[in-house]
Amino acid sequence: MNILASRFPGLQQSLPFLPLTHLPTPLDPAPGLAGRIGLEKLWIKRDDLSADVYGGNKVRKLEYLIADAIRTGSDALITFGAIGSNHALATSIFAQRQGLTCYAVLIDQSLTPYLGPTLRYHARIGTVLIYADTFKQAIKAGESAVANHPGGADRVYYVPWGGSSWLGTVGFINAALELADQFGADDAPEKIYLACGTWGTAAGLAIGLRLAKLPSQLVAVRVVPGSANGQDRFISLFEETNRELHDRDSSFPIFDDPLANVEIRLEFLGPAYAEPTTECLEAVELISATEHLKLDTTYTGKALAALLHDARETKTAGRRAVFWNTYNGRPYPDDLDTITPEAIPEPFRRYL
């Protein structure tokens, strides 16, 4: 469902698009959780169900990125992430369903229970896994993989960390328009909470909410460490995406002040990437008990922890909020235990 293109015909002809999702994703009321934390109304945007084979927020981005890879004649993609990256796995799953090889350069992270199944899933579908200790090593390893690609370096399509290029960001302008259609201006929530790693999801939603004239504030909860708080990256993606769309269809408005409807929250990351906090674990347990929904402790649990904190501190008490579930809610294949350690490159086996 490409709402954006239907409203701006110039974009329909100038933006590549490959349907991968089943949209709209549900907008489920969460009365049990709302009652426990003192909200008048709480909804969960179920992007965990965005596609049948694998859900989560990355699929909306891949509808544009994989389409662009096909348009450019690429026969392979390369992307990056941590060992347990949902983005890297989603990219490989959907790329290979289009007959494209996927290189995934993955860097070290804290041990979590899902690393083993994720690596086995990669092995099952034939991802070319490349290990790196650090971000800088990952860049060099990626360059080497591209240079040695059998089809030639010019046939490898670059998918950035988290799929957060301006083109990937467009997927979440669509998502905001979808949400606006599900609510209507009179029913709009005051706040929308989501986890932010590479900021493409947040930038797209911020543009789309303004495009739809939905008066909701986006609460972007940082879950990935870095030297900056993410604000500069968010602003850069917002402005680049906005400019690219306006250049392709002059009726697409240019928005000022990228942070006009956005609050960036830094205090829920915890000691390191993928290390759960006490607040995160509480949030994961509470939503499981009240709404029977599974979250992860790397991204979505920390975003929900921010919502719970704000409700208790009266920032959202008695109000209406949306929790945007960016996690994959689809089960992994049930035969992953047949994948032996030998099927996985040696540097990754210690994570099994």
Task: Set down the secondary structure blueprint.
Elements lengths: L2 H5 L1 H6 L12 E3 L1 H7 L3 E6 L11 H14 L4 E7 L3 H11 L4 E7 L7 H11 L2 E5 L2 H13 L8 E3 L7 H18 L7 E6 L3 H12 L5 E6 L8 H18 L13 E4 L12 H14 L8 H13 L7 E6 L27
Parallel strand pairs: 2-10, 3-4, 3-6, 4-5, 7-8, 7-10, 8-9
Antiparallel strand pairs: 1-2
How far the N terminus sits from the C terminus, by CA atoms, comes to 38 Å
Largest sheet: 6 strands, mixed
Oligomerization: single chain
Shape: globular
**What number of structural domains do the residues give?**
2
CATH fold label of the largest domain: Rossmann fold
* Number of DSSP E strands: 10
CATH class of the largest domain: Alpha Beta
Q: Which structural class should the secondary elements be placed in? A: alpha/beta
| SS element count, helices | 12
Radius of gyration: 20 Å
Residues in β-strands, percent = 15-25%
Pattern of helices and strands:
HHEHEHEHEHEHEHEHEHEHHE
Fraction of helical residues = 40-55%
Architecture of the largest domain, CATH level 2? 3-Layer(aba) Sandwich
- What is the typical, i.e. mean, pLDDT? 95
- Poorly predicted runs are none
- Strand arrangement in the largest pleated sheet: 1-2-10-7-8-9
Task: Describe this entry's structure for a reader.
40% of the residues lie in helices and 15% in strands. The relative contact order is 0.16. The chain has 352 residues and is α/β, with parallel strands linked by helices. The chain has two domains: 3-56 and 165-325, Rossmann fold; 58-163, Rossmann fold, CATH 3.40.50. The strands form two sheets. A six-stranded mixed sheet has the order 1-2-10-7-8-9, with helices on both faces. Strands 5-4-3-6 form a four-stranded parallel sheet, with helices on both faces. It contains twelve helices and ten strands.
